[in-house]
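S1.2 Input.
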Amino acid sequence: MTKSYQNYVNAGICPNCGSHPTELPHVLCQKCRQALKNRAARLKEQGICVGCGKQPTESERTRCSTCLQKEAQRNKQKRQSRITTNICIACGKQPARKELRTCNDCAEKESNRLKTRRDSFRNSSQCTTCGSPADDPKYTQCTQCRNKQNLDVKRSYWQAIVDKSCPDCKQPRDPESPSKRLCSKCYAKSRLRRIKSHSLSRYDGQLEAVIERDKGCVICGKPWRNSRSGVVCHHMDNNPQNNDFTNLVLLCRRCHTLVTNWVACSAKDTMLKFLLQHYPSKRD
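S1.3 Output.
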């Protein structure tokens, strides 16, 4: 009875020669593997396909178009079967995560490989996506890749709108969300980003320098922690258009209310005099 390929593999015998034992994790023995390497090198030098050994190859490829199509079809069927059985499409051994279709180990390896590839392209002034020369030093991608990525993002966004799901997390939108497109969690994160970005971009970009200089309220000493810590920026001359660095100070909301919102002019003038008398040493 003739043994099949799988029987040879299960028995630990090389299915090519049928006599020598295999060396794990390889399927063939060392002699057959070396013979295949020599054959592939010889055919590659002659410009012939290493798969069929008949048709010539194109450009720098080692296989002809027919063998490439067959290999692509086999890989597609293999991936589809692995997706159906919920195993990693890369190694085919460990269970896959549904959102990535790969196991944790393969996902980490792929992430490290892509990171190394992007870093090498970035250092050599190449597009981090396709590897072509970057046409604009402001961006890490070429114009074609940027346009394609923007188009994909727009398609994904509007597809989520049609499916009545959140464009950010792809989860179904909850009816209690204050936004018509985002879920409650993504809306809260987006609102916090907008508040932080808006607060840092105000005052002609001087806010970060003022925070670094004052550290907190110049009257009571309440420290600045974040945009929600209750410390705001105040114009010394009450002119919102004058965003000069020496005209900006940090005040907590209580002190800011005392300075700006009190109706009694005498109290307001007293607070402004306090600022003018005690703060110039810190501004200089």
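S1.4 Remarks. The radius of gyration is 33 Å.
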